[in-house]
Design goal:
With 77 residues, the protein is mainly α. The chain has one domain. Helices cover 35% and strands 8% of the residues. Strands 1-2 form a two-stranded antiparallel sheet.
Length: 77
């Protein structure tokens, strides 16, 4: 974020009204993203997190009076 703010507001600028001041950062971000190849890069990225509906999750419970632990089950369908 600091890098973007530095690139957007590094020059000298003057705004005539509040709307121009609000539109300026948006326009600068569009200029910075013109040459972006993010859509091509997204194809090569690893898939995101799996939805939780694909797994069976149970609670961990420890019996503090003994060394016997209840094993938690986690399996992906």
């Amino acid at each position: 974020m600091k890098v973007l703010l530095g690139r957007i507001f590094s020059g000298t600028y003057r705004f005539g009204n509040l709307n121009e001041a609000r539109e300026y950062p948006h326009g600068q971000l569009l200029k910075l993203n013109e040459g972006s190849e993010i859509e091509d890069e997204k194809k090569c990225l690893a898939p995101g997190k799996l939805p939780l509906e694909l797994a069976v999750i149970s609670d961990n419970k420890v019996n503090t009076s003994s060394m016997n632990f209840r094993v938690t089950e986690f399996c992906v369908n």
